[in-house]
Design goal:
alpha/beta, six-stranded mixed beta sheet, 39% helix, binds nicotinamide-adenine-dinucleotide
Length: 479
């Protein structure tokens, strides 16, 4: 079984205690992982601070960019190894893991390619005043990430921060920490100076709490649940540092009767089946106009029935959930929902064919869902789709916006005016029209409205997230 250390100041650091990472496809132990705590976080923050003061933030942007693009090349070199490791650690199907690795490489390529074009502005004031802005790094940034897309989210949050000139401490989730550690090693191989990226695995209430409450960090990026997001926000308030919160979602696909259903159905199904529904932006609600309801639900059901289920490395359509606890949680939602909705398909853990030991859950379809029920309001994080009908556009908009979350809204219609109306009215950070997701969306700013959080990752916007703006005003001597 693999044993891992923490990665601090360019060195592998053993910890006194460890924890076990399990393979969700089999329930078997996969790796014994260093259990970093306050001492390791202190050490990592100190290493990041001295790497920052030793000059990473002052390295020419073009040079930082070259190193980040080398990281992208190394991720691509190790694509198969990384994908297999990610698939075993998270249970996700191999093709999904490969796609995640490809997106991780794109983050390093994108930010490595754009950082030397991240200009400030000159501001016209008067002939006697020269005013301009500078984008400066914060210094040390903390990054706490979830288990659902470890290599992708590590790269999404760390690549722009490194590009801007910050030095980072990354705390991966205890359920799936392995590829984040590999990423740290690849960054060193690519020439990132020691201490610029430190990776400290550990438990949330130990390493995570130590990092979010640390007086030595200047910015925190948190991706995870609403509950922990609240804790992290309180912890950062103590030191008055900015925090970017990327939290959960309860995102709707809104399907109007004039939509191209043949195109929509596979994409709608994928939006909830991908990663077994354990995606912040999962399309977990389906709002359908009355006239299209029967045809759409039948087509979704037909595709759900054809879904193959199995261990991630065998590359099925649907892998297991991350843990037994997560499967119990999903089962609990399903049992409560059965009182307020019509269970059309699934609702149980599949058995047989080698599925008994892993944490599998069947594709589950609820129809006639009461929009106030917990299955329509709360993040289930499983392959569970809740269908609710609507009759006209105002009702669709009202239902779409009627949760605490606001991550993604998708609208399916041939009518441009309806699509635009919904896009403008949607209270969410992203709107998709006749599509869902966009190949990882590296270039597209991403983040939440309402309780899905605030701050933006991805795209050019992330360079602003991870930098602070300085305005310089110079009074010119009279000529
Ligand atoms: P989680 O909130 O349980 O854990 C996230 C991270 O926080 C982990 O690294 C964990 O160890 C750490 N943590 C736990 N307790 C902590 C504490 N007290 N102090 C500091 N850190 C602590 O979330 P999860 O179960 O790993 O991930 C699923 C959640 O993440 C879902 O809600 C999902 O929607 C969300 N998510 C959001 C996005 C996005 O971009 N908006 C992306 C992926 C996942």
């Amino acid at each position: 079984m693999e044993q891992t250390s923490a990665l601090i100041d360019g060195k592998e650091i053993a910890t006194e205690r460890s924890f076990t990472s399990f393979d969700p496809s089999t329930g078997e132990p996969l790796a014994e992982v260093a259990r970093g705590g306050k001492a390791e976080i202190d050490r990592a923050v100190a290493a990041a601070r001295s790497a920052f003061e030793n000059g990473w933030g002052r390295t020419a942007p073009a040079e930082r960019g070259r190193i980040l693009r080398r990281v992208a090349d190394l991720i691509r070199r190790d694509r198969e190894d990384l994908a297999l490791l990610e698939s075993r650690d998270t249970g996700k199907p191999l093709k999904q893991a490969r796609a995640d690795v490809d997106v991780a490489a794109r983050y390093f390529e994108f930010y490595g390619g754009t950082i030397d074009a991240f200009y400030g502005q000159t501001i016209p004031v008067s002939d006697e005043i020269l005013a301009y802005t500078l984008h400066e790094p914060f210094g040390v940034t903390g990054h706490i990430i979830p288990w659902n897309y470890p290599i992708q989210i590590s790269s999404r949050t760390v690549a722009p921060s490194l590009a801007v000139g910050n030095c980072c401490v990354l705390k991966p989730a205890e359920e799936a920490p392995l590829t984040a550690l590999r990423l740290g090693a690849l960054c060193l191989e690519a020439g990132l100076p020691p201490g610029v990226l430190n990776v400290v695995p550990g438990l949330g209430e130990e390493a995570g709490a130590a990092l979010s409450g640390h007086a030595g960090i200047d910015h925190l990026s948190f991706t995870g649940s609403l509950e922990v997001g609240r804790l992290v926000q309180k912890a950062t308030a103590e030191h008055v540092i900015p925090v970017a919160l990327e939290l959960g979602g309860k995102s709707p696909n809104i399907v109007f009767a004039d939509a191209d259903l043949a195109t929509a159905v596979p994409i709608i199904v994928n939006s909830i089946i991908q990663n077994a529904g354990q995606t912040c932006s999962a399309g977990s609600r389906l709002l359908v106009q009355d006239r299209a309801h029967d045809e759409l639900v039948a087509a979704v059901r037909e595709r759900f029935e054809a879904i193959t289920i199995g261990p991630g490395p065998q590359d099925p359509d649907l892998g297991p959930l991350i843990s037994e606890a997560q499967r119990d949680r999903v089962q609990g939602f399903v049992e409560r929902a059965a009182k307020s909705a019509e269970l059309t398909l699934g609702g149980t853990a599949p058995t047989g064919d080698g599925l008994d030991r892993g944490f599998f859950f069947s594709p589950t379809l609820f129809d006639r869902v009461d929009p106030d029920a917990s299955i329509a309001q709360e993040e289930v994080f499983g392959p569970v789709l809740a269908v609710t009908r609507f009759s006209h556009v105002d009702e669709a908009i009202r239902l779409a916006n009627a949760t605490d979350y606001g991550l993604v809204t998708a609208v399916w219609t041939r009518d441009v005016a309806t699509a635009h109306r919904v896009a403008r009215a949607a209270r969410s950070g992203q709107v998709y029209i006749n599509t869902y997701g966009a190949g990882g969306g590296v270039e597209l700013p991403f983040g939440g409205f309402k309780r899905s959080g605030y701050g933006r990752e991805k795209g050019f916007e992330a360079l602003s997230t991870y930098s602070q703006l300085k305005t310089v005003t110079l009074k010119l001597p009279a000529s």
